[in-house]
Each structure stands twice: as C-alpha cells, then as structure tokens.
Amino acid sequence: MIVEVDIPPRPFNGGHIIFRVDKPIFDLEFTELAELKKRIDMAIMIEKKKLKPEGFNIHITDTEIHIIPRWCGDINVAFFGGVKVIPLSIDDIRDMIVKELQFS
Question: Would you say residue 20 lies in a domain?
C-alpha cells in the first residue's frame, strides 16, 4: 500500500489534508488498514497540537481519506464572491502538517 499525503487544490478549511492510497480502501488487507489508521491518527494528533481545532470531519472515498479540521463558527457557506476565506495558506499547511507526515 502506497500512501501519499497531499493538500487539495481547493481546501475546505485550513489544515484540510488528503491521504491517497494506491488501491481501493475496501480492497486493503487488515494490516494495511491498521497502518493507514495509524497514519490518520498521527495526522489528527499533529493537527490537534498545531491548529487546535474543535473537531474533525473525515470523508472517505474509494482511494482517498480527507481529514478536515473544524472550529466553532466555521460554516459550509462562508463564501464571498465564490471565494472562501481560509486563514492558512496551502504552503502553511504543507510546512506545518504534511512535511511531518511524509512516509518512506
């Protein structure tokens, strides 16, 4: 199982990261799922320490897991002119979170 950690081009919130695996999640072996869970737990631990969110949304698709930190007051429709205001840049998140989650 190859896991890549990335930031979506249009993140929902600051800290929104994506784990991508090389085959469908439902086809992973138990040991692969356990390793993926450890990596997700590590990401959440890092985000809790650095970003201090009040909770997380976790969205799972066929080959992706989205980790989206949430804070009281952030809303799904906080858009102005089609642009959502996110206080952290993609580079900020890459430096603060993703670099710590690079796996060999």
Answer: yes
